[in-house]
Design brief:
Layout lengths: L3 H7 L14 H19 L7 H10 L8 H18 L6 H10 L14
Helix pairs in contact: 1-2, 2-4
């Protein structure tokens, strides 16, 4: 069973602000439902509690390639947000603020790793 800290993030709705031409309905639903929790794991706001969560963090740190659905969708999402940060004409204030909240700065994610 997930800890109270994990459940706090699992209950938070996430606004991915991604084009539905690039992300499927299922991918967007996964991001809306679990994005706050995945971002908290990636940032280190919560510690992994299962081997799958530990692996997710390893993927976020660039030490492993994404394999699970969560890892693949999150990697796709982060790559899109990095692209948006490098192409500011396509990014509005809300998305730019989201990048900072995710720990994405400049061309990568600061101390939180970088997807290959």
């Amino acid at each position: 069973m997930a800890s109270a800290e994990h459940m706090k993030y699992r209950k938070m709705e996430f606004q991915p602000n991604v084009p539905d031409t690039l992300f499927s309905e299922d991918e967007i639903e996964l991001l809306v439902t679990y994005g706050s929790w995945l971002a908290a794991l990636m940032r280190g706001a919560i510690s992994p509690e299962t081997p799958a969560q530990e692996r997710f963090v390893e993927v976020c740190n660039g030490n492993k390639n994404p394999e699970s659905q969560f890892e693949k969708v999150w990697a796709k999402y982060i790559k899109r947000k990095i692209w948006e940060s490098e192409n500011p004409d396509f990014v509005g204030k809300q998305e730019a603020d989201l990048l900072v909240n995710l720990g994405i700065t400049g061309r990568g994610w600061g101390v939180y790793g970088h997807f290959k």
